[in-house]
Amino acid sequence: MTGPDARIRAGHVWRKTGWTSRARGCLIVAQRRGGRSVIGVVLGSESIWTDMQALLDAAFAS
User: Fold this and answer.
1) Is residue 1 in some structural domain?
2) 6 vs 16 pLDDT, higher one
3) Do residues 45 and 19 lie in contact, with contact meaning Cβ atoms separated by under 8 Å?
4) What is the model's pTM?
């Protein structure tokens, strides 16, 4: 698996993308790593995959 969302796909349980001119890029991801589950939400982003990966990495690091 390659591409900007490859790391997110590796542990994803569920995801949904969206885009409107008003809301911009939106992404919701449920991911499981090492027995922990996290739901991340990114709204109004021009870089949804990069922003989501940073959000998930921070959540799993804490």
Assistant:
1) no
2) 16
3) no
4) 0.79
42 contacts 48 by C-beta, under 8 angstroms: yes
pLDDT at 3: 62
Q: Measured at the alpha carbon of residue 55, what is the angle toward residues 53 and 59, in degrees to the nearest 5?
A: 115
The position carrying tokens 């796909």 is 9
Tell me how many domains the chain contains. Answer: 1
pLDDT tens-digit readout, 31-62: 998 899 999 999 999 899 999 999 999 999 98
| 42 belongs to a structural domain | yes
Do residues 26 and 19 make contact, with C-beta atoms less than 8 angstroms apart?
A: yes
Identify the residue whose tokens are 């885009």.
Answer: 19
Q: Which amino acid is at 10?
A: A
Q: How many CA atoms lie within 13 A of 31 on its CB side?
A: 23
